[in-house]
């Protein structure tokens, strides 16, 4: 069981408008950036102003927002459909980090701080466990739209994240070294993916 990371709940300044309740299970996780310049210091109140006040949306489009200090903010409740990727929201949960643009606000850039990366990975791991998903169920906004968001290659980032993940041997596991532990975990994930795909084909998920 993956431990739920520490989070803070965003309190909207005004009552959110009508949102659509989720009618099908969560099957995907999307990673986003807010497209703000590096070091902007923005938080959920700022995203509310953009998404709700300026865009006229019912709530912040993301379910979770990660600020530069690594704080995970619960924004739109997960039981409601998000507003993250046009046409792809009904079965997905959306996570965004504050940033995604260089300081000059000209070019897309992966501006995640170490704290943001750690929180994004911890939150994603917990959501994968909660919804019985695998790494192949994680996508970037840019895979479904002509956008740079989240300003990095998601598949490459996941590979780097997982390869750096092993540490001390887990209880009951022999001391195989970092690479051995990584391969053991990778084998377990492949088995889970095969099980997930088999269930998908039979309509059980």
What would you note in describing this structure?
The chain has 205 residues and is α/β, with parallel strands linked by helices. It has helices spanning 44-54, 114-130, 154-164, 177-201, and strands spanning 8-9, 28-33, 36-37, 64-66, 72-74, 92-97, 100-101, 138-140. The strands form 2 sheets. A 6-stranded mixed β-sheet has the order 1-5-4-6-2-8, covered by helices on one side. A two-stranded parallel ribbon has the order 3-7. Strand 4 (64-66) and strand 5 form a beta hairpin.
Helix content: 25-40%
Overall structural class, as computed from helix and strand content, comes to: alpha/beta
Radius of gyration using CA atoms only? 18 Å
Shape: globular
String of helices and strands: EEEHEEEEHEHH
Low-confidence stretches: 167-178
Main β sheet profile: 6 strands, mixed
Arithmetic mean of pLDDT: 89
Which strand order do you get reading across the main beta sheet? 1-5-4-6-2-8
Strand-residue proportion: 5-15%
End-to-end gap: 20 Å
DSSP summary, beta strand count: 8
Number of helices: 4
Mind sketching the topology for me?
Elements: E1 8-9, E2 28-33, E3 36-37, H1 44-54, E4 64-66, E5 72-74, E6 92-97, E7 100-101, H2 114-130, E8 138-140, H3 154-164, H4 177-201
Parallel strand pairs: 1-5, 2-6, 2-8, 3-7, 4-6
Antiparallel strand pairs: 4-5
């Amino acid at each position: 069981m993956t431990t739920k990371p520490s989070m803070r709940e965003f309190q909207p300044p005004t009552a959110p408008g009508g949102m659509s309740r989720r009618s099908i299970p969560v099957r995907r996780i999307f990673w986003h950036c807010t497209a703000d310049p590096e070091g902007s210091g923005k938080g959920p109140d700022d995203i509310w102003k953009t998404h709700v006040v300026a865009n006229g949306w019912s709530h912040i489009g993301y379910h979770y927002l990660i600020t530069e200090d690594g704080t995970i903010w619960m924004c739109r409740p997960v039981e409601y459909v998000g507003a993250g990727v046009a046409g792809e929201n009904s079965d997905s949960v959306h996570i965004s980090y504050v940033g995604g643009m260089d300081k000059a606000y000209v070019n897309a850039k992966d501006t995640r701080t170490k704290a943001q990366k750690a929180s994004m990975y911890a939150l994603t791991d917990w959501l994968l466990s909660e919804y019985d998903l695998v790494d192949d169920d994680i996508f970037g906004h840019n895979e479904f739209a002509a956008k740079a968001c989240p300003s990095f290659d998601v598949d490459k980032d996941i590979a780097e994240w997982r390869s750096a993940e092993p540490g001390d041997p887990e209880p009951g596991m022999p001391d195989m070294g970092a690479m051995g532990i990584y391969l053991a975990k990778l084998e377990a994930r492949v088995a889970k993916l095969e099980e997930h795909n088999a269930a998908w084909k039979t309509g059980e998920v």
